[in-house]
Amino acid sequence: MIGYVTVGTTDIEKAKAFYCDLFADRGAKVLIDAGRIAMIGATPKEPMISVCLPFDGNDPQPGNGTMVAFRAKDKEEADALYHRAISLGATCEGAPGQRIPDRFYGAYVRDPDGNKMTFYVFG
């Protein structure tokens, strides 16, 4: 249902590198680079993340209560993505762990621009 999600950045090159490196194991690369906005993913037929310098020229503002959720194939991949994100400059927003017994496992970070994300598994 979701084609792509866009997050704002202050440094487009740094943001492209962060997300391409974070999802390198999934084949992520810049698929479209239009200067102030770039679409990153494995193929344009799968959900992508877009990074952009805001159109209005103002600083990007992460939304309060806004979060991008990336499905992991298992808890080990959720952990690995969390640790990779931290190593790439993200900050912890909640270490990997079972949030709802037998239903939801998640690991939370904020990217270098403050955008919140989770790597999750149902179950």
Layout of strands and helices, then pairs:
Blueprint: E1 4-8, H1 12-22, E2 29-33, E3 37-41, E4 48-52, E5 68-71, H2 75-87, E6 91-100, E7 104-110, E8 116-122
Parallel strand pairs: 1-4, 5-8
Antiparallel strand pairs: 2-3, 3-4, 6-7, 7-8
Top keywords for this entry?
123 residues, alpha/beta, 2 helices, 39% strand, 4-stranded mixed sheet, 8 strands
Mean pLDDT: 96
Question: Outline, from the CA principal axes?
Answer: globular
Order of helices and strands: EHEEEEHEEE
Please state the CA-atom Rg, rounded to the nearest Å. Answer: 14 Å
Summarize the amount of helix as a percent range: 10-25%
Distance between the termini: 21 Å
Count helical runs: 2
Low-confidence stretches: none
Q: Order of strands in the sheet with the most strands?
A: 1-4-3-2
Share of residues in strands: 35-45%
Strand count, sense and closure of the main sheet? 4 strands, mixed
What is the number of E strands? Answer: 8
* SSE-based structural type: alpha/beta
